[in-house]
Amino acid sequence: MDRATFACSTAFFRDYSSSSQSAFCLPAGHVDFIDKVESFTYSDFFRDYLIPNHPCIFSAKFTDGWGSRRNWVTWDGKPDFDYLLQKFGDAIVPVANCDVKEYNSNPKEQLPFKEYINYWKEYIKNDYRSSRGCLYLKDWHLSRAFPEQDVYTTPVYFSSDWLNEYWDAIAVDDYRFVYMGPKGSWTPFHADVFRSYSWSANICGRKKWLLYPPGQEDYLKDRHGNLPFDVTAPGLQDKSVYPRYNQSQPPVEIMQEAGEIVFIPSGWHHQVYNLEDTISINHNWVNGCNVAIMWCFLQDELAAVQREINEWKDPMDDWHLQCQLIMKSCTGIDYKEFYNFLKVIAENRISILENGLDDEASAKNTPKAAISTLGMLHAVFDLKRTVKVLTSLSANEDFKKLDLTSLSPPPEALLHHLKAAIDTALL
C-alpha cells in the first residue's frame, strides 16, 4: 500500500459506517474489465474496488500461469476428465443437486470424485439429462486436501485475506473452494458467508452472474421477509407474495469467460449459472475494508436468534449463552470467536511492525509474509480498522454479558497494545 492509498483509506473510513454501504452503486450497472496485469497495481484495486465495494472482472491474463489452466483443461477448452481422475479420483467430494430445493438451498451428498466424473461424462453423453438430476460439485476444499498440487496462486489483489489467515492459524477450516459442474448447473440467490468478499476464477467454461448491490435484496423479499430461492422465477411478479419486487433495480449482469476472475464485493447478493461445462476456483475473504460489515452481519444474526427464542429469556438462566451457541451453529462463529479472530489478525501485524520478517520467513508462503509484502502502511491500516471494530465489540452489551475471563489478553489490554503499535509505527 502506497502513501496516497493509505491517506485515501484513512479519509474514507473516518466517516464510514457499514450501514452506508448500500449507497455505493454502479453507474448504469457498469462493471470494469481489468485487462493488463503489468499496469494494474494492488493500490489501484484497493482504491477503486475494495474501498467503494464495487465489482470488477480480471482478464484471463491474470491466470495464465496457473497449473490448473495448463493441466485441467483439454486443447479445446473442456474439462480434462482423465487428468482430473488421475490426480483426484479417490477423493470424497461434496455434490449438490441443482434440481431439488431443500430449506432454500440444494441438498448435498458426499460422493467419490471418480463417481461424480463418471456421472458428468454420462450427463454430457445423454444431452445433459439424467434421472439423478443436475449434480454440481461445490465447496470442495481441494487446496487443503491436496496442498502439493500446482493448482493456482492467489493474486496479490486478494492477499489481504483475514478469514483464511485466521482459520489456517487454528487449523480448523478454510474458505478456499473448487467448483465443478455441467452446463445448466447453478447456485441459488444468496450473499456470501459473513457478508465476505469473494473472488471466482473460471478455469474453463462460462458463467453468468446476476448481482444485486447491498440493500436491493430488501425489495426481493416476500411478505414474510424471506429472500427468493430463484430471482428469475415468475412468481416474483405476484405482488401479493412479493409486494416490493417492482421497486427493485435490474441486476448487474456479468458474463464470465474462461480464465477470467470476477470480484464480488461484500454484501452483494448474487445468483450464478454455468453456461458450459465449467470448473472454477473461489475464495471467500475479509479484510480491513469490510470487517465492519462482517461485524454488522454478526450483530444482525444474533438479534435474529434472540427474537426466535425470546420467550425463553426469563426462565432460561444461560439464555445469552444459548443464543451464542445457536448463532455459531448457524453462521460458524460467535462473539468470543470473533474476538479471537480480531486478536490473531492484530497480533500478526503487530509482530511484523515490531520485529520485521527475516529473509527465510519472507520466502515462505505464510500470512506474515503476505502482510510484509503489502507493506508497513497496510499493516497500520489493518490495525486501525481492527481497533475500530474491537472498540465496538467491547462496548456491545451482548458481548459484555458473556464470561470474558477466558479471553487472553483481555479486550482492554489488546486495544491498548494495538493503539500503542499504531502510534509507534506512525512516528
Helical percent range?
25-40%
CATH class of the largest domain: Mainly Beta
Roughly how many Å is the radius of gyration? 22 Å
Which architecture of the largest domain per CATH?
Sandwich
The number of helical segments is: 15
Q: Structural class of the secondary elements?
A: alpha+beta
Q: How many discrete domains?
A: 2
The biggest beta sheet is recorded as: 9 strands, mixed
Give the N-to-C terminal Cα separation: 18 Å
Q: Which homologous superfamily in CATH is the superfamily of the largest domain?
A: Cupin
Outline the secondary-structure elements:
Elements: H1 3-14, E1 32-34, H2 42-50, E2 56-58, H3 67-71, H4 81-88, E3 92-97, E4 108-112, H5 113-125, E5 135-140, H6 142-145, H7 162-169, E6 176-181, E7 186-190, E8 197-204, E9 207-212, E10 252-256, E11 261-264, E12 269-274, E13 278-285, H8 291-308, H9 319-331, H10 335-355, H11 359-362, H12 367-374, H13 376-395, H14 397-400, H15 411-425
Helix pairs in contact: 1-13, 8-9, 10-13, 10-15, 13-15
How does this structure look, described?
One of its GO terms (cellular component) is cytoplasm. Keywords: Iron, Metal-binding, Oxidoreductase. Belongs to the JMJD6 family. This is 2-oxoglutarate and iron-dependent oxygenase JMJD4. GO terms for molecular function: 2-oxoglutarate-dependent dioxygenase activity; catalytic activity, acting on a protein; metal ion binding; sequence-specific DNA binding. By secondary structure, the protein is an alpha+beta fold. The chain has two domains: 29-213 and 249-285, Jelly Rolls (Sandwich), CATH 2.60.120.650; 291-425, no CATH class. Helix content is 38%, strand content 17%. The protein contains 15 helices and 13 strands. The strands form two sheets. It has a nine-stranded mixed sheet with strand order 1-2-11-8-13-6-5-3-4. Strands 7-12-9-10 form a four-stranded antiparallel sheet, with no helix packed on it. α2 (42-50) links the parallel β1 and β2. α13 packs antiparallel against α15. The longest helix is centred in the C-terminal third of the chain and has 21 residues, at 335-355. It is globular. 37% of the residues are buried. The mean pLDDT is 93.
